[in-house]
């Protein structure tokens, strides 16, 4: 039995702000079911975790956590869910707040969390052979594990889910947060700042990203957010492993959120389309091509491209539904556009998981023209619901969506190469041509139906890496 401890800041079904939570909620289960591993997860005990979960937690231990010149108390609570054991680190000052991120002291909060993870190991009935940390909030756990060596021979892995967010703090916080010799500052400093993500990249035994293409992209200055030189130095230790999705959860045959269940039936898709048209107030027409966008309304998601071509595209006989929240400028633009095209465009400035699933189940096309995308889960969910993705060729989008070729009949979607609005418009027009060609449309849908992105294959890749990394497994 291989013992692996995941360290992360969010995890479904307990607390979620984005795709990281889906990964941490699904990958341990896949490693247990398919690889026979004992994978456990440690998380902060946020006040935002629903009461139904907190009521099921069991108190385990309390201990002091050194944070520079002072001590903070931490408590461990445990909960078993779907045969996975979860540890929750409680501290009233740092985690009894509304929301998860966005506080002025987020750096301090997650440094405390990482230090608490290391201190907690002496109190657990579990000795991890691998510590696997995810994104900057867990990055210092990798550094501190190497410096403090809480468990002999324990190896460390760090996964970059999005290199844009690094957990940067003033350099003076090193003395404030850590009671460590100055010699360790170099492994945590980058460009005159304390950098949590850089600390993990420097100390980890292996570094992974959430898709093979993203593993290559982050070595380029355009994508690296200033860390390309360090990543080039560690190039041999970087592995890209594609994310999967929980195909039991995202299953249109059993999804309770959607009106009409289906496996691959186009008649059922059409029935769901009619239901969503009625729900959001669009003209009801099961034959009209329906495009959807489900996203955070931020620059990364390629929304500037959509702004440039939206008026042109909406001259076509199409419908478009946008679901998401984000930057005020994008919210205002797409709200105004919906007023200008009430028969064709609906903008829903919210995020509702049930509505999102209804959109996936009803749409013909899903648009995701991201500027960069480490992996992307939305296009995988779209494919699972038999909705054709239209993406830019970057990161995990490039690794999962393959352009339809009407000559060979291959491909499960549409893509464009450059971050260019007219390329997006061209591929949108082409998608309409294919939609209105019955034979080509049916061939495309046949390819979509064959697209599978469960965690099974990815779990095997992680297991191989764990086995190669740890001599304990030999």
What does this structure look like?
The protein is α/β, with parallel strands linked by helices. The chain folds into two domains: 3-244 and 456-473, Rossmann fold (3-Layer(aba) Sandwich); 266-450, Rossmann fold (3-Layer(aba) Sandwich), CATH 3.40.50.2000. It contains 19 helices and 18 strands. A nine-stranded mixed beta sheet has the order 3-4-5-2-1-6-7-11-12, sandwiched between helices. Strands 15-14-13-16-17-18 form a six-stranded parallel beta sheet, with helices on both faces. Helix 1 crosses helix 19 (456-469), helix 5 (139-148) crosses helix 7 (196-203) and helix 12 packs across helix 17 (421-435). It is globular. The relative contact order is 0.11.
Topology readout:
Elements: E1 3-7, H1 19-35, E2 38-44, H2 51-54, E3 58-67, E4 70-81, E5 84-90, H3 92-95, H4 106-120, E6 130-134, H5 139-148, E7 155-160, E8 168-170, H6 173-177, E9 189-190, E10 193-195, H7 196-203, E11 206-209, H8 212-217, H9 221-224, H10 228-233, E12 238-240, H11 266-280, E13 290-294, H12 303-313, E14 319-323, H13 328-340, E15 345-348, H14 353-362, E16 365-368, H15 378-384, E17 388-392, H16 395-400, E18 414-416, H17 421-435, H18 438-450, H19 456-469
Parallel strand pairs: 1-2, 1-6, 2-5, 6-7, 7-11, 11-12, 13-14, 13-16, 14-15, 16-17, 17-18
Antiparallel strand pairs: 3-4, 4-5, 8-10, 9-10
Helix pairs in contact: 1-19, 4-5, 5-7, 11-14, 12-17
């Amino acid at each position: 039995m291989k013992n692996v401890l995941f360290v992360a800041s969010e995890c479904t079904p307990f607390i979620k702000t984005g795709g990281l939570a889906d990964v941490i909620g699904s990958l341990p289960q896949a490693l247990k079911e398919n690889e026979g591993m004992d994978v456990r997860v440690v998380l902060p005990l946020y006040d935002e975790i629903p009461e139904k979960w907190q009521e099921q937690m069991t108190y385990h231990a309390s201990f002091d956590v050194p944070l520079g010149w002072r001590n903070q108390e931490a408590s461990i609570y445990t909960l078993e869910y779907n045969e996975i054991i979860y540890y929750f680190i409680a501290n009233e000052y740092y985690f009894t707040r509304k929301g998860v991120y966005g506080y002025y002291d987020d750096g301090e909060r997650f440094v405390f969390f990482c230090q608490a993870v290391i201190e907690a190991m002496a109190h657990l009935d579990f000795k991890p052979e691998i510590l696997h940390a995810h994104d900057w909030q867990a990055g210092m756990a990798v550094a501190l594990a190497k410096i403090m060596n809480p468990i002999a021979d324990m190896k460390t892995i760090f996964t970059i889910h999005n290199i844009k967010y690094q957990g940067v703090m003033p350099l003076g916080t090193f003395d404030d947060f850590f009671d460590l010799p100055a010699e360790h500052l170099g492994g945590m400093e980058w460009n005159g700042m304390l950098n949590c993500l850089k600390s993990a990249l420097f100390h980890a035994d292996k570094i992974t990203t959430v898709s093979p293409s993203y593993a290559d992209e982050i070595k380029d200055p355009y994508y690296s957010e200033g860390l390309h030189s360090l990543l080039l130095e560690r190039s041999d230790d970087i592995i890209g492993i594609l994310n999967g999705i929980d195909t039991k959860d995202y299953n249109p045959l059993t999804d309770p959120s959607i009106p009409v269940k289906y496996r691959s039936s186009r008649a059922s898709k059409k029935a769901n389309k009619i239901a969503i048209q009625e729900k959001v107030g669009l003209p009801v027409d099961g034959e009209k091509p329906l495009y959807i966008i489900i996203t955070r309304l931020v620059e990364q998601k390629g929304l500037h491209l959509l702004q440039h071509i939206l008026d042109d595209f909406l001259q076509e006989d199409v419908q478009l539904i946008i679901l998401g929240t984000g930057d005020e400028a994008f919210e205002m633009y797409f709200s105004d556009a919906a007023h200008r095209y009430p028969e064709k465009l609906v903008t829903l400035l919210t995020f509702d998981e049930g509505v999102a699933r209804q959109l996936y189940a009803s749409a013909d096309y899903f648009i995701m023209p991201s500027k960069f995308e480490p992996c992307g889960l939305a296009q995988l969910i779209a494919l699972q619901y038999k909705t054709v993705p239209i993406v830019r060729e970057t990161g995990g989008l490039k690794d999962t969506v393959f352009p339809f070729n009407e000559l060979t009949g291959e491909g499960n979607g549409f893509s464009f190469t450059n971050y260019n609005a007219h390329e997006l418009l061209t591929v949108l027009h082409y998608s309409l041509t294919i939609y209105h060609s019955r034979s080509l449309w049916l061939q495309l849908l046949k390819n979509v139906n064959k697209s599978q992105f469960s965690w099974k294959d990815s779990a095997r890749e992680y297991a191989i890496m764990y086995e190669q990394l740890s001599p304990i497994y030999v």
